[in-house]
Specification:
With about 140 residues, this protein is mostly helical. The chain has a domain at about 100-135. It has helices spanning about 1-15, 75-90, 100-110; strands spanning about 120, 130. Strands 1-2 form a two-stranded antiparallel ribbon. Strand 1 (about 120) and strand 2 form a beta hairpin. The radius of gyration is 40 Å and the shape is flat.
Length: about 140
C-alpha cells in the first residue's frame, strides 16, 4: 500500500513540475495629491515636570516602591503579614471524631469495606463518599 501511494505521489509531482506558474498583474499605484505649504516650523520643547517626568507626590524615598509599578506604594511588611496569616489559616486542625463510641467504628468496618474512620465515611455504589450512620452513633 505504501509503495502504491509513494509511486502515485511521485507521478503526480513529475506531471506538475513542468508547467509554468501564473504571474499576478502589476499593482497600479494611486497618484498622491500635491502637498500644500501650510506647515509652520516650531521649536520642540519637552516639559519634564508633572506625572511623567518627576514629582510623584511624596518628598522622600519609600522602601518597597518600584519605579514601574501601578503607582501605589506597598511596604514589604504587608506581604510578610499576609504570608504569616495565610499560613496560620491553612494549618488549622481537621475535625476529628474522637468522641464516637468504638462500637460505631467496629459496626461500620464490618458493614462497609471502604469505610474510613478518619472522616467517618464510606463509598456506596453511587460512587460518592457518604457518612456512616450506625445504631451506636
Amino acid at each position: 500500500m505504501k509503495k502504491i501511494a509513494i509511486s502515485a505521489l511521485a507521478a503526480l509531482m513529475a506531471m506538475t513540475t513542468g508547467y509554468e506558474t501564473a504571474f499576478a498583474a502589476p499593482v497600479i499605484q494611486p497618484i498622491k495629491p500635491a502637498l500644500t505649504g501650510d506647515v509652520e516650523a516650531v521649536q520642540y520643547h519637552h516639559r519634564r515636570h508633572g506625572w511623567y517626568g518627576g514629582h510623584r507626590g511624596y518628598r522622600s524615598y519609600r522602601h518597597g516602591y518600584r519605579r514601574h509599578s501601578d503607582g501605589w506604594w506597598y511596604p514589604l511588611a504587608a506581604f510578610g503579614a499576609g504570608a504569616i496569616i495565610g499560613g496560620a489559616i491553612s494549618n488549622e486542625r481537621r475535625t476529628s471524631y474522637e468522641g464516637i463510641n468504638p462500637r460505631h467504628y467496629d459496626w461500620c468496618y464490618a458493614r462497609y469495606r471502604s469505610y474510613r474512620s478518619s472522616d467517618n465515611t464510606y463509598v456506596p455504589r453511587a460512587g460518592y463518599r457518604a457518612e456512616c450512620l450506625s445504631p451506636y452513633y
